[in-house]
User: Fold this.
Amino acid sequence: MMPAIASPVQVLRDLIACNSVSTNDEGQQAARQKIAKILEDDIGADVTLIHTSGKPIIFATVPGERQEALLFYGHYDVMNPGDLSKWHNDPFELTAHDGRFYGRGAGDNKGQLVATLTGISQFLAKQPKLPYTIQFLIEGEEEQGSVNLPIAVREQKDKA
Assistant:
């Protein structure tokens, strides 16, 4: 039985701290590593990095009783925060105010990604057999127009 994500807020905090704007390869690599570790350790997924002519894509699979798959899409890149003097807090530090979380990527897409991963990890902790296979495709170029995504998807389809 897989352990569920123990602290989703801490996971989000750690992911927000990754300055994964498209121009920051180090921040993107850190985000990819954190996401891959969650997928492997907390969800039991088989994780592969798909290399493209741009940023790598995380592809992960959790086998189910059927081969038909549910695909969850997400991205680990974020928009450049722009003029930092216009921010009330460090954009790469998760903060809470009036019951809401703030930080670069909290709403698009790191927050949604952590919510999805947490929900699936909670489900698997109680129900280890999935009726369907679950797959994740998490890219690093969505904020730049996903230029390499169609090519990568075609190449992966051709391999299947």
